[in-house]
Write a structure and sequence with these properties.
The chain is an alpha+beta fold and 89 residues long. Helices cover 26% and strands 29% of the residues. The protein has one domain.
């Protein structure tokens, strides 16, 4: 299990995809894994969507103090900031 500073969260909503990262995460580091995490989350929460259906989604990046994977909602998942893989898959 990654440490708290290496855990991000991603949620898929009708309005778009929201990625939350711990405070102090560099933008470049977050963007490196954003596409990997986004693709994995869309496959998990909206299976069957083609690239054309999901390519125009809004994307939001938030910085939060701490991410608690056990407190995430129904359409949200934690991911490892180093690899972009969803945690608990």
């Amino acid at each position: 299990m990654p440490t708290d500073k290496n855990i991000g969260a991603i949620s898929v909503k009708a309005s778009g995809v929201e990625i939350s990262v711990p405070t102090g995460t560099r933008l470049g580091d977050a963007l490196k894994v954003a596409n990997i995490a986004k693709a994995a989350a869309l496959k998990k929460f909206q299976p069957g969507g083609c690239t054309q259906c999901t390519s125009g989604r809004d994307f939001r990046l938030r910085e939060v103090a701490r991410i608690l994977p056990e407190k995430l909602g129904k359409n949200a998942a934690a991911f490892d900031l180093k690899s972009g893989k969803l945690i608990g898959q």
